[in-house]
UniProtKB/TrEMBL annotation, chain A:
The pyruvate dehydrogenase complex catalyzes the overall conversion of pyruvate to acetyl-CoA and CO(2). It contains multiple copies of three enzymatic components: pyruvate dehydrogenase (E1), dihydrolipoamide acetyltransferase (E2) and lipoamide dehydrogenase (E3). GO terms for molecular function: pyruvate dehydrogenase (acetyl-transferring) activity. Its cofactor is thiamine diphosphate. One of its GO terms (biological process) is branched-chain amino acid catabolic process. It comes from the Bacteria. This is Pyruvate dehydrogenase E1 component subunit alpha. Residues 49-338 form the Dehydrogenase E1 component domain. SUPFAM superfamilies: Thiamin diphosphate-binding fold (THDP-binding). Its EC number is 1.2.4.1.
Length: 366, 325
């Protein structure tokens, strides 16, 4: 398939020409058939199912949090096109460096769901990653994943691996020094990295306009000499198109790409006390809810007769079962022993720490 | 075996390890063509190629991020921070990322990273080049903090650090780079990362130090010997975690101890050593634990640094106080 996006041209584009790319309009209609991702009907159904999975997971996680059965949770509803369609374009051997809202991608990348739940509850088993899982746990320090992504990408380049490092931050993350250092290092080394900025309009409460005088975040790629582009982050097919094309470009040895997805979180920043009505209006929320990425893709599928109400109900039930199963495993996890995970600090545990481990072991046995 | 300076010994260790293991990568600002501002990486890029020895853009946090990512993809990164006073720019990557990646991942990953940096006073630098910041590192669980005091140890400790699967912060005192030569074997060897060294034996008092202050301590010990005071000089070498056994057994033998560091007094390595001795060695003490250190101010203007820095005379006085207690 021919390349649909001219990434080289994006390195020198005028910022005023940066416009969000769309595949489906807000009514689910294909805007330009020549500009459609290489996906079969079955693949598009699968993509939709994964987005639906994420929406159900979001709703259930919120309830489980309220019941005290889950800990930290950053809601994802509204961002499914941005999160799931970007993950959908990646390979399992690509390396994922997520931020704290990017748990759905991690699970789809291979992290068992119960481990995601254990991470939320603050259990070490949630962070014991399978050897072949090409990912780090969610990053808390905003921007740190960007410089690390440059490192992973350089490692891939040195090994001759046909893979990318891909990472996520939000609109606020682009104000961090690490954001610039990450895209700049990857650009300077022509390393295969895809930097995704999920611009949901707010860094907790601070609106996008307060972060920077730049009219787009995509144009920040210009200063690093790398292609930057904007995509409608409520349009799953557009996100997939951009990500899959960026991956091809990057793996071919052309260097990194910066992608800004324009999206919105329907819920609060996290469930730890954030009230979005302190900083955004009901009108604005209603406007964005009309752009619901699930509704848009479902409308497309409906019209092609690829998805039905019955299928949806059955699938939701399936996902709920999966979540129940994972929750059961989560709640059966053994009580953590400090004496055990203190041994994870070093490969070669020094005697000073051995002494402290022994103290905890004695306390835990008593 | 040839006599060599500490800087040359460091270059040798880097060259040996780069050649022994193709996954060893040396990178940082000016380390490539230029061979580093102190020439620690002199000639290495020509010898092993740009794939293993390469320059980075000028951004310390980016250098730290590269180290994390390269370690995750199977490499053994040896980044250089041009001066350790610049570490604040990369503090997150060192303290919050590299030091805890293994712990955070439940022991399923490792971070075989050796961060090298010059530091230390007395060489007339502009500000923020000379600070002794090992205390900040020592307070970070997950890091080993190593400070050699001579060419032999520098080569052996750096080799051990690079081969170690744990992150090591390896600090090189600028004043020691070229101040003297020592016999250093041509072949590769390691010096254990968890062992202090007794650099001079003595029965009357133990002086515990590290880095350049080991030399001021040895000079002090020579003078004290003329007055009949035999001081033992312990070089910590690895300032975190501490080799408690060597410290405590020396103190037990002499019953008196003077702790010497170039860093400011507050919450440094001396404090930790003092606490250790107070906790586990107090019954063998015949005098209070004494400390020699710099005052609690930011590193001074360079024209005044020789007044600010602790020296041989300070050590001699403190030892006499302790011996005559």
């Amino acid at each position: 398939m021919a390349q649909k996006i001219d990434f080289e041209a994006l390195k020198t584009i005028s910022p005023s020409e940066i416009k969000p790319l769309q595949v489906l309009d807000e009514n689910g209609k294909v805007i330009d058939p020549n500009f459609f991702p290489d996906l079969s009907d079955e693949q598009i159904v699968e993509l939709f199912k994964q987005m639906l999975w994420s929406r159900v997971l979001d709703e259930r996680s919120t309830k489980l949090n309220r019941q005290g059965r889950l800990g930290f949770f950053a809601p994802t509803a509204g961002e499914e096109a941005s999160q799931i369609a970007s993950e959908f374009a990646m390979e399992k051997t690509d390396f994922l460096l997520p931020a704290y809202r990017d748990v759905p991608q991690l699970v789809l990348h291979g992290l068992p769901l119960e481990k995601a739940f254990l991470w939320s509850r603050g259990h070490v088993l949630g962070n014991e990653y399978p050897e072949d899982l090409a990912a780090l746990p969610p990053q808390i320090i905003i921007g740190a994943q960007y410089v690390q992504a440059a490192g992973v990408a350089l490692g891939f380049k040195k090994k001759g691996a046909k893979n990318v490092a891909y990472t996520y931050t939000g609109d606020g993350g682009t104000s961090q020094g690490d954001f610039y250092e990450g895209i700049n290092f990857a650009g300077a080394y022509k390393a295969p990295a895809i930097f995704v900025v999920q611009n949901n309009g707010y860094a907790i409460s601070v609106p996008r306009a307060v972060q920077t005088a730049a009219p787009t975040l995509a144009q920040k790629g210009l200063a690093a000499g790398i292609p930057g582009l904007q995509v409608d982050g409520m349009d799953a097919l557009a996100v997939y198109l951009v990500m899959s094309e960026a991956r091809k470009y990057s793996v071919a040895g052309n260097g990194p790409v910066l992608i800004e997805t324009l999206t919105y979180r329907f819920g609060p920043h996290t469930l730890s006390g954030d009230d979005p009505h302190r900083y955004r209006t009901a009108d604005e929320e209603a406007k964005w809810e009309k752009k619901d990425p699930l509704v848009r893709l479902r409308t497309y599928l409906d019209e092609k007769g690829l998805w039905s109400e019955e299928q949806e109900e059955a699938y939701i039930e399936e996902v709920n079962e999966q979540i129940n199963e994972a929750m059961k495993k989560t709640e059966q996890a053994p009580k953590q022993k400090v004496s055990e995970y203190l041994q994870n600090v070093f490969v070669e545990t020094p005697p000073t720490l051995e002494e402290q481990i022994a103290k905890f072991a004695a306390k835990e046995e008593a | 075996m040839a006599k060599t300076t500490m800087i040359k010994a460091i270059t040798q260790a880097l060259e040996d390890e780069l050649k022994r293991d193709k996954n060893v990568l040396v990178f940082g600002e000016d380390v490539g063509r230029n061979g580093g501002v102190f020439r620690a990486t002199d000639g290495l890029q020509d010898k092993v190629g740009e794939d293993q020895v390469f320059d980075t853009p000028l951004a310390e946090s980016g250098i730290g991020g590269l180290a994390v990512g390269l370690a995750l993809t199977g490499f053994r990164p040896v980044p250089e921070i041009q001066f350790f006073g610049f570490v604040f720019e990369v503090m997150d990557e060192i303290a919050a990322q590299i030091a805890r990646t293994r712990f955070r991942l439940g022991g399923t990953r490792k971070m075989p990273v050796t961060i090298r940096a010059p530091f230390g006073g007395g060489v007339h630098t502009p500000e923020l080049h000379s600070d002794s910041l090992e205390g900040l590192m020592a307070q970070t669980p997950g890091l080993k903090v190593v400070i050699p005091s001579d060419p032999y140890d520098a080569k052996g400790l750096l080799t051990a650090a690079i081969r170690s699967d744990d992150p090591v912060v390896f600090l090189e005192h600028m004043k020691l780079y070229r101040s003297f030569k020592q016999e250093v074997p041509d072949e590769a060897y390691t010096v254990a990362l968890d062992k202090a060294a007794i650099k001079r034996e003595g029965k009357d008092v133990t002086i515990i130090s590290y880095g350049y202050m080991v030399h001021e301590s040895l000079l002090a010990a020579d003078e004290l010997a003329k007055e009949g005071i035999e001081a033992e000089v312990v070089d910590l070498r690895t300032v975190s975690p501490l080799d408690e056994e060597t410290i405590l057994s020396s103190v037990k033998r002499t019953g008196r101890v003077v702790l010497v560091q170039e860093a400011q007094r507050q919450a440094g390595i001396n404090s930790q050593v003092a606490a250790l001795i107070a906790e586990k060695g107090i019954l063998s003490l015949e005098a209070p634990i004494a400390r020699v250190d710099a005052p609690d101010t930011p590193y001074p203007f360079s024209d005044a640094e020789m007044i600010w820095l602790p020296n041989k005379q300070d050590i001699i006085e403190k030892v006499k106080e302790t011996v005559n207690f």
